[in-house]
């Protein structure tokens, strides 16, 4: 394969022997990230009980591991594919299941994401840009939250960054192998969080299509290879689920017809974009404090959502700088050769950022602030690449002016974000503002052209640019987070952020402790020790007793599984011992007909008993 001169020079530039400072600096970055993400990792306990219970089930039964079952009895799966659960459950099998071993893979994925992002940016703009990008990723609050939490977003982020690295390698030499590897990474990202994984595809595909050093038809052919690899690496599991006899596997939670493909296209696809996820499907009821525009559900859809009260402090600290850097970078490379790797990288990360942010901003279905972790690698890469490329041109006023604008915009926006928690470190706002404006002034007047002054300016720009987001990130790692509505940062005046408030909008993360009920369930040896409507009570009981508890209707009691006939058969066969009343079945009057039918049948045919203040029905002892 023959490269154009521009492409060959760009590749060779990234493969020269690194300066002495590079390897120690990378080691320090990765070690600091590991300390940040691993220190006090079990502080939040089981984090999200829903996924923790499924991870525990995967340590108890291999079928539950394969399908991502919520319970070891394999009644129903969680409402996402199981790839993230596979890793957490394997960690539990290897080291014993605990909160720490469950979250250990998540934290290591954070370190891995920083390392891979560094590698992807370094190959384009050198080690300094890679270090900036890796640092920004590590010190973004929502990243610290998700890499210490058990939602699937940690693995999703890592796999998307791996795909981007593979595309960088593929673009350098028009490599079919690297393009196929990128497709494989995206396929497994689909098995982590379904269609969200494909939001980065336009940016990745555009970069290769524009810059790969071969003819257009060859570029299209190699992109087709990547697409086929993506479909195969995701499709094998979809096919496995579809071909497996439905009677011998768990019901696919969140689907309407027990189909993983329908789950991807429905609840986790079109319904997320257009709304209509249905009441109780993980979203808030309309009106009142649980309205869909509530902060825990993304705020009002629109162009300002990424900067708004819900998502701004999670991810947008350096978003203005990234957008300025993207626009400037594309302008300054407009006359570069087609095969310019710098411009290709700007197109790739810029496409990632713009498409994902646009979808998140305007989607009318269920969205939570922590989804924005998918934006962080793109923001970090754009900041790293643009700062390095502009700094190389600092002898010219225009690049210096852009750098000054990035510094000033970052400082002023940080002040606005910090003002949302006015009682938390109020002096920090003025330190950041004064420092960033001072750096911007020095850049404009050109003192940074002097070698020694330039080093000081770079260090000061990094300090004041990252100080606010770093403080929020440290606060995030020091606090506890739990339930399905985790949010990074300190608590604001309206209760948003920090540890979960009492009675947040949406379903609670479990019920109050009931030792008597836990003992009753733990002493049972049937396939399911108990059954209850929805996952909230079921998840907590599974984690406290290590018994299998059936969640009728899945996450919020809305799925039509099991049917009344199936549940009656389980009871007749002695496979489920207790029915626990009062499970979470969505807002009043919105429970599924299946859950309501089962509840009515139990109440009509079995005698209630009080266990620690909870109504329980012993299904092995019907009334005479």
From TrEMBL:
Domain Glycosyltransferase RgtA/B/C/D-like: from-to ranges: 79-234
Keyword Disulfide bond carried by entry: no
Keyword Disulfide bond: no
Residue stretches making up the Putative mannosyltransferase YkcA/B-like C-terminal domain: 524-605
Region (Disordered): 489-515
Main localization of the protein described in the UniProt heading: membrane
Alphabetically ordered keywords of this record: Cell membrane, Glycosyltransferase, Membrane, Transferase, Transmembrane, Transmembrane helix
Superkingdom in the source lineage: Bacteria
GO BP annotations, alphabetical order: lipopolysaccharide biosynthetic process; response to iron(III) ion
Membrane topology category: Multi-pass membrane protein
GO cellular component entries: plasma membrane
Membrane-spanning parts: 21-40, 94-121, 128-147, 197-216, 223-241, 315-332, 344-363, 369-390, 402-421, 427-446, 453-474
PANTHER family named among the record's database cross-references: MANNOSYLTRANSFERASE YKCB-RELATED, UNDECAPRENYL PHOSPHATE-ALPHA-4-AMINO-4-DEOXY-L-ARABINOSE ARABINOSYL TRANSFERASE
Name of the protein: Glycosyl transferase
Taxonomic source organism: Mycolicibacterium pulveris
High-level lineage: Bacteria, Bacillati, Actinomycetota, Actinomycetes, Mycobacteriales
